[in-house]
Amino acid sequence: MVSSKIPRSSGPLDDIDTQLVELLKANARMPNSRLAELVGVAQSTCITRVRSLEDRGVITGYTARVSPAALGLSLQALISVSIKSGARQSISAFSDDISSRTEVLQLFFLGGAEDFVIHVATRDSDHLREFVVANLSAHPSVASTRTSIVFEHVVN
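Predicted structure:
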């Protein structure tokens, strides 16, 4: 799982860093030689820049995007979760427990009306219902849930 934590101590990105980030966002498997060519720097400079972006926490990881539907998980949903006021001390344990579930694509810890939004992928509506009942409604820390079906998901 890729974390989206705030970068460590990274100064402002210059034009080359910004171009590298955009190119790697579009294709993380792009070879260093092609990256260097596209941004107009030597290959040694390019790899040094990319490593610096990683060390500074600007680039936090590389991952393959996999279609949940291709894995038989054709129904996606966003589930808003409110934690009981007396269970605030267990937020970290709840987060760890839920994020380990195979159905969970993303988990967002929020400030606002809901405490979490969970992006899940399931086989069908029965599987979604089972996930909500077994993992959320029955969880001792959960006060309430609200489920919204995803019709379309665009990744930017």
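Summary: The chain has five helices and four strands.
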